[in-house]
Structure formats: C-alpha cells, structure tokens
Amino acid sequence: MSNHGPSVAIACQGGGSHSAFTAGALQRLLPAVDGESNLVGLSGTSGGALCAVTAWYGLLSEGPDYAGQLLEDIWCDVAATTPPSFLLNESLVWRKRLQNLMVPTTDVSPYATPGRPGQRWYLSLLDRHIDFDEFDALADEAPPHVTVGTVNVNSGVFETFTDAAITPKAVLASAAFPLLYKAVELNGHWHWDGLFSQNPPIREFLTSGRPKPDEIWVIQIEPQTRDDRPTSLAEITDRRQELSGNISLNQELFFVRKVNDWVEKGYLPDGFKHVEIRRLTLDKKLTAASKRDRDPRFIEDLMETGRTEADEFLNRVPKDVAEPPCQ
C-alpha cells in the first residue's frame, strides 16, 4: 500500500450477477488506490462480498494486478459455460421473468429439494480461487481490512465478519437468498443473504477502531433514481426490488453524513473526522431477473461496463486523491 495520499475504503453493494460490474470496477480502482492513496477497507454483501473478499485476498497475496486477474478468473468461472449450466441458467432467468409478469409458477422451498447443487457449487467456486487457510496470515498484514454482511435469521439483527473471521460459509451466507438457498449456520445461528442486512457494511469503517478512511467509495448496483413511472407488473416489481436493495445502503450513508455533521459541530472527539462519500453507479437499465443471469456474454459486458465507469469515476476524483492507472 502507498504511504501517501488520503485513505480510501471501498464498499461493494450486492446484486447477484450484476456484481460482475463491481468486479470490473475493482480491476481499475485497486491499482489507482494502490498507486496514489491508502486503501484501508473493503466491504460487500452477496455478490459484492464475493468481489470484496476476492479483491482483498488477491491484493494482500500478490498486489493489485493479481487481484484484478483473480476477479477476472472467478467471474469467468461464475459464467454458465457448459451446456447443462447454460440450460439451468436460462430456466432460472425465465422463471423469474414469468414471476415478474405474474404468470403462475410453482414455488418450491429449497428445503424440499435437498439435491440442489447451488450452494455446493458456490463453495467449490470459492475453494478453486481463494485459500481461506491463508486468511490468518493475511489479516496480520492488514490494512486493508475486509468485511462481509449477513443477517442473523434467529435474532433478526445484522451480523458482519471481518478478515480472518471470514470463512467460505460466511461468504456463502452473504449470498444465501432465502427463496433459492438454505440458510447457512454460523456460530450456532442461521444466516441469510446480506441483501437483507447492511448492503453493504459501511459504518464499520468508522466504528471498528481501525484506521478511518478519508473517503468512502460506494460501488452501487441498484439504481437510486428512475425517470419513468413503473406501470406494468414487471416494472413495478423491478423498481420495488431496487428500492428495497437501496434501503440499507442509504441508512448506512445517513450514518456517515450524521457523523460528518457532528464532527463539523464539534460534538465528537478528535478521533473522528469528515469522511467524503463518492458513488460509482451502474447506470444500465436492467431487470431483477437478470440478477440470476450467468450468460458469459452478459457477465463480460457488465465487467467491461464496470471498467469503463471506474475510469470515468477516477477522472472525476480530485487529482490529489487518485488518478487513473497508467495505460
């Protein structure tokens, strides 16, 4: 990590396959921050957790270039490239599209079909690309620190896991959408998708006792605004899910802004400081159904969009904070 420049934390919102956008964005952001600033934290939920943990592992293992390649590799592995996985992908996407159109479909609990391969496949994906046995040693080298978000189904409270406390099951729990996957047991309690919790965790950047960032860069998957009025059932369903996905993000950012306000009024001790918030957003108009889409062309298009948007984002950041990596 650089020893000069302001400190930065990157928060990755979850969004299923749409998180491939985040992977592409991180491929540009990590070298830029490493060269000009101090990266003190990463966080994520669901697909954002996959990106954040992959980036953290690659960054501390061999540096930003390796982290970028690892993000490329893991999302290429996520893509449905074999005939069976492609057919399964198409069936899941079209099922969701039909549900959004209010076409009657049969819902089956994930507990009624114990043979579902989804969670075993996800754990296998993590095992192929990330050595979690190294996390204890990597945590000793931090910052940056990494945090993933889940929700504790039993207590109904948000729960996060940081650095060496992150296991494959914790990353799996952050992606365990309850209508598709079984809850994941962690520390004697059941956990669901991080989209129901802090999406993504942000306040931990300020309250954990670790180095506080000067800036928080939010990679936002869900659209904050829409110009049109949703009228069809599919449009209403999509917008409702977008708004739901942003509720916790906006609550997290409200906390940061409130702390900033207290700092400016002198209510807080010297350990607190103003933290700038910057957003990098996915502006493509996508549907909720496409969050399940693992078509290789769709994944690569999102990653390329992420790279492009990150380059433009870095051009907007004041030059004393960060500059785009050399081409």
UniProtKB/TrEMBL annotation:
Q: Indicate the segments annotated as coiled coil, or none if absent.
A: none
Keywords, alphabetical: Lipid metabolism
Is Lipid metabolism included in the keywords of this UniProt record? yes
Protein name from the UniProt record: Patatin-like phospholipase
**What SUPFAM superfamilies is this protein classified in?**
FabD/lysophospholipase-like
The record's annotation in InterPro entries points to: Acyl_Trfase/lysoPLipase, PNPLA_dom
Q: Does the record bear Phosphoprotein in its keywords?
A: no
Q: Which residues form the PNPLA domain?
A: 10-206
PROSITE patterns membership: PNPLA
Q: Which GO terms describe its biological process?
A: lipid metabolic process
